[in-house]
Structure formats: C-alpha cells, structure tokens
Amino acid sequence: MTQRKIILIGSFLSAVLKHRSVCEDLAEQLTARGWSVAAASRRAAPLGRLVDITKVVFAEGRSARVAQVDLFSGRAFLWAEYAALLLRLFGVPYVLTAHGGGLPDYVKRWPGRARRLLANAAAVTAPSGFLHRELRPLRADIRLIPNGMDLESYRFRVRAPASPTLIWVRSFHQIYNPAMAVDVVERLLPDFPGLRLTMVGPDRGDGTLAAMRELIRARGLDSAIEIVPGVERARIPALLDAADIFINTTNVDNTPVSVMEALASGLCVVSTDAGGLPDLLSDGVDALLCPRGDAAAMASRVESILRSPELAERLSNAARQTALASGWDDVMKRWDALFEEVRPA
C-alpha cells in the first residue's frame, strides 16, 4: 500500500532569505494533516539545488505517493523540468503549481517546453485567476487553488478613518519598483505633513536597497520613510497592524502574499494593476488600483482614502472578506481532494 508520503519541490530558503515561501507553509499544513513530507531545496546555489533535488527524489521516489512541484519562470523553470524528469523515472505522479507574474511571458517564449511539462503532470494548479487564464491555452483542466494563509495570525481592525501611516512590504528588487513609493510619499507630504511610510522586505542583492537609501536621503525624506530590511515573518502581522494604508508599487505580479496579508489585516490597499492584481483585487471594492508606474495616480488614491472615512471603512471591511476565501482550512480541503485523485501510474 502506498504511504501518505509527498515530495515537495520548491524554494525552502526562509532561513537564508528571511522570507517564507508558500511551499514552506504548504509543507507545514500537510505535516499537520498526517503527511510525511520530503522537501527540496534548501540550497540557493544552482549546483547545490540540483544536488539537493536529486538526493530527495532518489531517496524518497520509491515510497512517495505523489509530488508537488512549484513552477516559476527563468532559472526556476529549469528546476521544475529537471524535477519532473526525475519523478517520471521513478513513476511518481506530480502536481505542478504555477507561480509568479513573469510565468505567462516565459511560457510564450518557450511554448513547446511549457506544453510538454504541463502535459506530463498528473494535474496543474494555479493560485490566481490570472495564471489560470494565461496558462489554459497550454492545458485546459488547470485547477484554481489559492495560496493559503493563517488568518488567525492577522489582527483585523477597521480603518475608519484611515491615518496617514503607510506600509510597503516586498523584496527590495527593481521589479517591485520601490522608488515609486518614495515618489508617492513626496507628492503627499505637502498636504499630509504627518505622513509616514514603513518599507519592509529582504534585500534581493541587485543594488535596489542601497539605491533606495540614497534616494530617500537625496529627497530629504529620512524623517518620513523608514526602511526595515530582513524582517522575520512573525513580525509582519504587527507591522501591518500599526499601519492603515498598504501600497503595492510592483511592475510584475501574480497573487502576492504580502497583499493577501494586508487584506487579512483590514488595511486599505492601493496597488498597481500589474499582472494578476486585477484578478485578485476589485477596484473600488476591496482596493484601489492605478496604472503601473503612475505615482501621481497612486498618491491621488491614497489621498482619497485619507479624506473619506466612509471609503476607508468600506475598503477595510471588504478586504477582510476577500482574505477569508484563502484561509488554510478551505484551501487544504482542495489540496486533499486533489491529492486523493492523483494515483501512481
């Protein structure tokens, strides 16, 4: 009889990056539900990651019931292809889970590879309507399973009225466009001199964090903007609770965990309309959206929240309702049902 053992292939790098991934949360939830979980990889270097994936599949492939493989664009796509090849050699059925706002463009560049990879999977899941829609031309039966979250970790309070306390939570990398947040603050300060922005996130090593520090200093905004890099995941709920407005300045996105955390906390969310964000957020209902790169538009939407307690209250309550659909209890029911359907060849 096949054991309830599962292999998870993804990025288990929270100890290194100070940023916990969705697959690490999934591993924890599966373990709590009686699954034996074998995970890879905890190595950041390419060679180490290759060796780690190989070791795990060779050690656990003969006894694993199923595998789940995260699928991102770029180099991470190669890891998924390699893991899928090993799993097929051992006869382990695998579920591919699409992630990242850059994946649709990547599969358009490599449609043949993407189609083969998806076709050989026992099932394919997507955490957002955006990825579900974008990948369906390659495989019609993609399942929609949102990223899960522990709602109890986030204190919900209604922001009415909203104070000029803003927060930005992402990695410091150019694709998340943190400089736009500085522009937003600079535009708002003349009318709201007490406005403060906290920018939270790990350094992705592309020079963006150092450039942000210099930009803030050059603009004379040191007293209005605080950078808090490398924060442990456990501190995020408290930082969100201390703010009233969440700004998301990204140029590329899908279903960001940080936005879901802000929704769960009841913050008033103002975001760009990049990637899958219009699928996640309903403009004027649970968030306010603006065009990518348009700092003036984002500042205007933040101002509308600060000047209208009624709007702030409506957005705050609706944000929590949106987050409720991603509670782990409901999400794990979908995963359990899918893993029960998948059978070894």
TrEMBL record:
Entry's CDD domains? GT4_PimA-like
Gene3D superfamilies per record: Glycogen Phosphorylase B (3.40.50.2000)
InterPro entries hit by this protein: Glyco_trans_1, Glyco_trans_4-like_N
> Which branch of life, at top level?
Bacteria
Q: Which residues form the Glycosyltransferase subfamily 4-like N-terminal domain?
A: 67-152
The chain positions of domain Glycosyl transferase family read 163-321
Pfam assignment, any one: Glyco_transf_4
Protein name, entry field: Glycosyltransferase family 4 protein
Origin species: Alsobacter ponti
Q: What is the lineage of its organism?
A: Bacteria, Pseudomonadati, Pseudomonadota, Alphaproteobacteria, Hyphomicrobiales
